[in-house]
């Protein structure tokens, strides 16, 4: 009997410490985790290995997190994408949702809250 496939989480975050903390959190819950710190790397990973959940920082060294979604429109869009931003801005929230994000969370995000929401989205 084969083991069921673990859900794949892609963390797109340019801060090593933040990305590592999320990686540890998700791996402890049994998710398979990949990390990218730039738009190009996130797009490559999502195309090469389908993603169930993407945690997407909006400010990246080589563009906006929304550039990742734009690049994946032709194929490779994750089932669920949650944008992370440091700015609580209604216009930005609308833009993210229109681009395909399931939710927009303002940093800092409680790990417990994020995990609870995530598990509801990708059952």
Helix-strand blueprint:
Layout: E1 8-12, H1 16-28, E2 32-36, H2 39-48, E3 53-57, E4 59-60, E5 63-64, H3 65-72, E6 80-85, H4 90-99, E7 103-106, H5 111-121
Parallel strand pairs: 1-2, 1-3, 3-6, 6-7
Antiparallel strand pairs: 4-5
Helix pairs in contact: 2-3
Description of the structure:
The chain is of the alpha/beta class. The chain is built from five helices and seven strands. The strands form two sheets. It has a five-stranded parallel β-sheet with strand order 2-1-3-6-7, with helices on both faces. Strands 4-5 form a two-stranded antiparallel sheet. Strand 1 (8-12), helix 1 and strand 2 (32-36) form a beta-alpha-beta unit. The chain starts with 7 loop residues before the first strand and ends with a helix.
């Amino acid at each position: 009997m084969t083991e069921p496939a673990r859900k794949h989480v892609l963390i797109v975050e340019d801060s090593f410490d933040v990305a590592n903390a999320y990686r540890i959190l998700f791996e402890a819950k049994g998710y398979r985790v990949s990390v990218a710190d730039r738009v190009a790397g996130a797009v490559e990973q999502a195309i090469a290995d389908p993603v169930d959940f993407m945690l997407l920082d909006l400010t990246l060294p080589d563009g906006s997190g929304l550039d990742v979604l734009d690049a994946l429109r032709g194929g490779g869009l994750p089932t669920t994408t949650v944008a992370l931003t440091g700015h609580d801005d209604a216009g930005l929230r609308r833009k993210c949702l229109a681009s395909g994000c399931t939710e927009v969370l303002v940093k800092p995000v409680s790990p417990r809250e994020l995990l609870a929401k995530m598990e509801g989205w990708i059952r």
